């Protein structure tokens, strides 16, 4: 069954190219690149061959240059990776994979491309990003135009991404979230920054007609009225979801088989073990007496 085409990938590439000519806004990318370098510094092993997958510009490659032997930038389509199986020691990606239509398929390809005990480390824009802009557009379009059109991409939730890592066959999968609040002089300043990130609306279901001036004016009013600080600056939330996982290897820590534990949890915690039925009875009695 073919995967849904959520993003217009050709338009996305054109938007990114235009952002480079405008002078890209890289503050989020620079932050993520530094975090990738910091996370890799905690890994006590060498990576001879690494790939930077889809990251705009070279911030990640500069940040981790001293941590890897050879690192190559890949600008090929992230949905059809040109790697041989078990050929890479490390795959990193910063703020790119959130625009992949077939993310489960891409994660499977990455896992297959890693050598046993190879590492995948990526940062994606998460589902709560730009919640303020999403809310302002929805309210303004409902008021002015009588309906709502897709304006902000439906980025994935951290729990869903963790499940995708497991489905792709990664060992020791880990997900966590970093929420960044950026303050702007106005909502228009935020929109200009998004354009310079190459992050304009690239949804395939986007409205093809230009945004009405009345709708934009109402968006700016709602945004400034609901999401401004006392000094008049407005807030924009960016949720960065971190993913990491290893290609399986026999040297990795393995979970114990059910029933193989040699010490009861109650003994380890030095507590009295209570059966499930006894717990339910005590809880019910306590609640009954309080009435």
Describe this structure in words.
The chain has 291 residues and is of the alpha/beta class. The chain has one domain: Rossmann fold, CATH 3.40.50.150. 39% of the residues lie in helices and 21% in strands. The protein contains ten helices and six strands; from the N terminus they run ααβαββαβααβααβαα. The longest helix has 15 residues, at 27-41. The radius of gyration is 24 Å and the shape is elongated. The model is unreliable at 275-291 (pLDDT under 50).
Please identify the structural class as seen in this structure: alpha/beta
Note the quaternary state here. single chain
Query: How many extended strands?
Result: 6
Which residue ranges are poorly predicted, with pLDDT under 50 across at least 5 consecutive positions? Answer: 275-291
End-to-end separation in angstroms reads 56 Å
CATH homologous superfamily (4th level) name: Vaccinia Virus protein VP39
What characterizes the major β-sheet?
6 strands, mixed
Q: Indicate how many domains the architecture comprises.
A: 1
Strand content: 15-25%
The CATH topology is Rossmann fold
Helix content: 25-40%
CATH second-level architecture: 3-Layer(aba) Sandwich
- Give the CATH level 1 class: Alpha Beta
| Secondary-structure element order, N to C | HHEHEEHEHHEHHEHH
The shape, in one word, is: elongated
Please state the average pLDDT score.
82
Strand order of the largest sheet: 2-1-3-4-6-5
- The total count of helices amounts to 10
> For the CA atoms, what is the radius of gyration?
24 Å
